[in-house]
Amino acid sequence: MFPTTSRLLSVFVLVSLALLGGCASLSPYSISEATLERHLQDTVSDFDRQQLQSGSPLSLNLSNADITLGPDGRDVAVIDLRGQVALNALMAKLPVDIALKVEGAPVYDSEEKAIYIRRLQLLESSIDSPFFKGDLKPVTDTVMRAVAQMLETMPVYRLDEADFTQRMFGMVPMDVRVAPGRLEFIMAE
């Protein structure tokens, strides 16, 4: 039997990537924690700007997005978010400092060519405002739904179509694997 066209294209792309990068790049393409952190902060900033332009009274500003990949050898990402949520109402801004620590599984969406964090669990939460300070446990379900919805729709990383290597990776069936300190693109099984 002859191989299908998509199989031939996959093989061609992988061979091309190996030849272009030389022998040293036979290891998988990977994304560091720092790259994911920068991308997440940029994505949240863009999301906030779009929400405000569409008339939303809530604004979100991340001051810190710390991502730890593969803690204790597990296939998860731990995201420690710190920032401020503000309600812009009646000519006043009511800021609330928040801190959330969540854990989830990095998942690659081949159609979107993006990595999302799914199956989230809340590890820690706190809030500090003029009206309340302490643990968010009383509103954990609401907070987790909001965070889960945000991370379900906003990728922590998207392949850069302008970069030849990343564009080639987007053309073949890929998946991500969690390694300590990085995510690695691997061939999908």
Structural summary, described in words:
With 189 residues, the protein is of the alpha+beta class. The protein has one domain (5-187): Super Roll (Bactericidal permeability-increasing protein, domain 1). The chain is 32% helix and 41% strand. It has helices at residues 5-21, 33-53, 140-153, 164-171, and strands spanning 30-32, 58-69, 77-89, 92-109, 114-128, 133-135, 157-158, 174-179, 182-187. The strands form 2 sheets. Strands 2, 3, 4, 5, 6 and 7 form a 6-stranded antiparallel sheet that branches. A hairpin with a 2-residue loop joins strand 8 and strand 9 (182-187). Helix 1 runs antiparallel to helix 4. The longest helix is centred in the first third of the chain and has 21 residues, at 33-53. The radius of gyration is 20 Å and the shape is globular. Residues 17-27 have low confidence and may be disordered.
Question: How would you summarize what this structure contains?
Answer:
The chain has 189 residues and is of the alpha+beta class.
Number of domains: 1
> Count the strands?
9
CATH topology: Bactericidal permeability-increasing protein, domain 1
CATH 4th-level superfamily? Uncharacterised protein PF07273 family, DUF1439
Estimate the mean pLDDT confidence.
78
Low-confidence stretches: 17-27
